[in-house]
Design a protein that fits this description.
Blueprint lengths: L1 H14 L10 H4 L3 E8 L8 E8 L4 E5 L19 E10 L1 E6 L10 H7 L4 H17 L2 E6 L6 H17 L26 E3 L4 E3 L9 E3 L6 H11 L4 E3 L20 H13 L4 E5 L2 H10 L3 E4 L5 H10 L2 E3 L3 H8 L1 H4 L3 H24 L18 H13 L3 H7 L2 H6 L16 E5 L14 E5 L2 E5 L9
Parallel strand pairs: 1-4, 5-6, 6-7, 8-9, 10-11, 11-12, 12-13
Antiparallel strand pairs: 1-2, 2-3, 4-14, 14-15, 15-16
Helix pairs in contact: 4-5, 6-7, 7-8, 9-12, 10-12
The protein binds zinc ion (ZN).
């Protein structure tokens, strides 16, 4: 095993021309690594930190110092007097969190026949493809995913795999900082199989005969809303996904179906979820259905096309999160000919996107918790790549780059109740971050340029040659 690890580290060293080998040691040895960077984005602050020092090991961040404040000696290696890596022209930021994705779908596939054929695979085949995605997205800088539901148990199986792996690797990982709970000697540890964090609602909850059958199971299969939620929890759901509305009718440029669920029904499902300690997230487009979700007390509005300003104000008042998911609608515009949309329909789509952008800017000004999610898996929205596109669309809508980055890191982590600590650069958070010389404060599109990903002590240099097949 030791020689395997040596080979692994050697392979990484050859790929890393501009980083010192000391950055690579932590995965194997849990040695602390000390970085000194010009700019640090902690995931929540509304201003960047300058001249920052950070100490981390393969488990967690141990120290963050701003304005030149250096770490205490006891956090460093014996006799270490200087940082391992000094990068005044680099920015360090948390790894990105995708708050709305369907891992069981291959988003990058645009051909509708091939998409249909793909879905005819067995659950085991769908699971294997999704598992591969969870590795590839880490190398692109996406370190965590809130899965938004599937009916074949793919998300639940991945969530269980992740939990099992984390327990094997370090014991009670959620009770950081560690040190005490790790019982196996360092020589027994090799880098765990690479896998982004994932949690899942299992099958989304919808009404029989209404939108959502491809990712949900109908409420009608259970005697009560509480029984439905209880069954999801028993199956391993980390949270509860509701589908209270239909989707946008692109030809009409509006949501043309009645909401599936009323306020009382949403409230009953939310109450049941809370009784099990679970958050709810609700697919909702069209202001009538959004009203039911807001008044029903869900934790987040997903998509939220056609949201009204008075509804945004209530999101702010109640700190209900909004995940606007521009990417799937933008894909319909970008591939209009392939989708069969004529100029009139494209004009509808563009008007909807413009209206959505204006709502996003108002939501930001109001103080709504805005969270980034791309709806990856939707037609044309590839996993990880789609999230980077979503961030660029949020910036294009008028959000400052730092607000966009916070939406994909600390705001997401702060509102959505993930099981582990990530999304912020702070002591006790997992060592999962992005180091880049291309400042994302100039534009978040720079996050597509060559960058270094640190994930639990493993280090990856990512550029345009990264493997994105099957995403
Ligand atoms: Zn979705």
């Amino acid at each position: 095993m030791a020689s395997d690890r040596a080979q692994h580290v050697a392979a990484e060293v050859t790929r890393l021309a501009n980083l010192p080998a000391s950055l690579l040691t932590s995965a194997a040895t849990r040695e602390p690594v000390w970085l000194h960077v010009g700019t640090l984005l902690d995931g929540t602050s509304t201003a960047p930190a300058r001249d920052a020092h950070i100490v981390y090991d393969s488990i967690a961040i141990r120290f963050v110092g701003r304005d030149g404040r250096t770490p205490p000696r006891e956090l460093l290696r014996p006799n270490q007097a200087a940082p391992d890596f000094v990068a005044p022209d680099h920015t360090l930021l948390p790894g990105l969190i995708e708050a709305h994705a369907h891992l069981f779908l291959e988003g990058g596939e645009l051909n509708l026949d091939r998409r249909a054929a793909y879905l005819k695979q067995t659950p085991a085949e769908l699971l294997a493809a999704a598992r591969a995605r969870l590795e590839k997205i880490v190398r692109l800088g996406v370190i965590a995913v809130r899965d938004a539901g599937d009916k074949d148990g793919v998300g639940l199986a991945l969530s269980k795999q992740y939990k099992d792996q984390r327990c094997l690797k370090v014991g009670q990982v959620s009770d950081l900082p560690l040190g005490e709970s790790e019982t196996r000697p360092a020589s027994d540890r090799s880098p765990a199989p690479l896998m982004a964090y994932l949690d899942s609602p299992g099958a989304a909850i919808h009404h029989r005969g209404r939108y959502g059958s491809f990712m949900g199971e109908p409420l009608e299969n259970f005697p009560t809303p509480h029984a439905c939620v209880a069954a999801r929890v028993a199956a391993g759901a980390d949270r509860i996904k509701l589908i209270p509305t239909g989707i946008i009718n692109f030809k009409a440029g509006a949501v043309t179906t009645e909401p599936q669920m009323g306020t009382a029904e949403v409230a009953a499902l939310v109450t049941a979820a809370k009784s099990f300690g679970r958050q709810t997230f609700a697919h909702a487009s069209g202001d009538r259905g959004i009203e039911h979700v807001v008044e029903g007390g869900a934790d987040s509005v997903e998509h939220g096309f056609f949201i009204r300003d008075d509804q945004l104000a209530r999101l702010r008042d109640r700190q209900i999160a909004w995940v606007p998911t521009f990417a799937p609608v933008q894909e319909q515009v970008d591939h209009a000919a392939l989708m069969g949309w004529d100029a009139a329909i494209v004009a509808h789509l563009q008007r909807i996107l413009d209206q959505h952008a204006a709502s996003l800017v108002r939501a930001h000004a109001l103080g709504v918790p805005i969270i980034a999610g791309s709806d990856a898996g939707s037609v044309g929205v590839a996993h990880a790549i789609g999230l980077l596109d979503e961030l660029a669309l949020m910036e294009r809508a008028g959000l400052p780059p730092l607000a966009v980055i916070n939406a994909a890191t600390g705001v997401s982590a702060g509102r959505l109740g993930y099981r582990e600590k990530f999304g912020r650069l702070a002591p006790g958070c997992l060592s999962r971050f992005i180091l880049t010389r291309h400042s994302p404060l100039a534009t978040v599109a720079n996050l597509r340029l060559p960058r270094t990903i640190v994930f639990d002590g493993q280090v990856f240099e990512t550029d345009a040659t990264a493997d994105v097949t099957g995403l």
